[in-house]
Write a structure and sequence with these properties.
Shape: elongated
Helix content: over 70%
Radius of gyration: 16 Å
Mean pLDDT: 91
Number of strands: 0
Order of helices and strands: HHHHH
Number of helices: 5
Length: 121
């Protein structure tokens, strides 16, 4: 449980810092580093990183949406056949979670290949 909190904080803090100047996919190598440094089972690290990535991307998307009073999300929603702003936030959360989850699982499995350690369950 303690490792899960460390992983979530690691991804949230570095992911928030990467928001200033790095591309949108920067969460993937950050989550891969979390998977490397905090060796848990691959399924467990995926689910923990999924939560962290979804929380990170939803928070950033919500703050950007609030900054322009929802105008941009309304226009993007029209492009996708009438999706509401909260639908787009949900899609953003799922995509961010999947990217972070697969990144962390990749880092965890790469550790197995290069270091050969057993995961903590």
């Amino acid at each position: 449980m303690k490792n899960a909190l460390y992983i979530i904080l690691f991804i949230l803090i570095l992911g928030s810092l990467s928001h200033f100047g790095l591309p949108w996919w920067a969460v993937v190598p950050i989550a891969a580093a979390a998977g490397w440094f905090f060796p848990l089972a691959a399924g467990k690290i995926f689910s923990i990183a999924f939560v962290a990535g979804a929380l990170l991307w939803t928070t950033n998307a919500f703050l950007l949406n609030a900054a322009n009073e929802g105008i941009l999300s309304a226009k993007v929603g029209v492009l996708f056949q009438g999706l509401k702003g909260w639908h787009l936030l949900g899609i953003t959360a799922i995509l961010g979670g999947i990217l972070a989850g697969f990144g962390a699982m990749t880092g965890r499995l790469a550790r197995d290949v290069f270091v050969g350690s057993k995961p903590k369950v």
